[in-house]
Specification:
By secondary structure, this protein is of the alpha+beta class. It is built from three helices and five strands, in the order H-E-E-E-H-H-E-E. The structure holds guanosine-5'-monophosphate and zinc ion (ZN).
Length: about 110
């Protein structure tokens, strides 16, 4: 999709620190990490949010969550991490290409802010 930051990263037009890549998803480090481990996992295809992804591409949704687990394990936080999908501007979504935040490596409080 034109003018989509994460489509540009998937296409390789904008550089990113990629930690995992397969036919369906790409994972790369967040440019402004909120924890020692902060990786974004995105589908290669453009979907605006996790609800649309789940409806339109359930197999890719499962692949994305498997990738999130793999990233967490590879980063050494597989026993304590958080997967976050901010959905909608009011919930803090700023990039409208669905992405799972995989966050770990520090104490994660509940409820989140
Ligand atoms: P959201 O606010 O939509 O849930 O998350 C978007 C995330 O993308 C933010 O955590 C932000 O730091 C990250 N981000 C924004 N621009 C870039 C970029 O150019 N490269 C990378 N790697 N992350 C970005
Ligand atoms: Zn996109």
């Amino acid at each position: 999709m034109a003018d989509c930051l994460f489509c540009s990263i998937v296409a390789g037009d904008i550089p990113a620190d990629i930690v995992l890549s397969n036919d369906d998803v790409v994972a790369f480090r967040d440019i402004a990490p909120q924890a020692p481990v902060h990786v974004l996992v995105v589908p290669r295809d453009h979907h605006a949010n996790v609800g649309e992804l789940a409806s339109d591409a359930p197999a890719t949704t499962a692949t994305l969550l498997q990738a999130a687990q793999e990233v967490a394990a590879n980063e050494g936080v597989g026993d304590a991490y958080r997967v976050v999908f901010n959905t909608g501007a009011g919930a803090g979504q700023t990039v409208f290409h669905v992405h799972a935040h995989v966050i770990g490596g520090r104490n994660l409080e509940w409820p989140p802010g």
